[in-house]
Amino acid sequence: SKPPLKSEGRLVVVEYNVNVGNYWVPHPLSFEAFCALAMRAGFTAPQLLATRPSHFLREIYAALAVAEESG
Length: 71
Hints:
Largest sheet: 3 strands, antiparallel
Strand order of the largest sheet: 1-3-2
Number of strands: 3
Helix content: 10-25%
Number of helices: 1
Strand content: 25-35%
Radius of gyration: 13 Å
Distance between the termini: 15 Å
Shape: elongated
């Protein structure tokens, strides 16, 4: 089967930086949790690109992870 991303493919995530959501955002993923998940899935350690305050769930972040080379 074909992998979802090629080696060195980029994954950009924009998400609320909390682990407990609410009715409208039931499954947010904090940057810390994203780091652990990405590395278990074969990505490099994610790079935090930016954060912005949120009126709803504290903060929003953007992060970049790169698929590790296969082989």
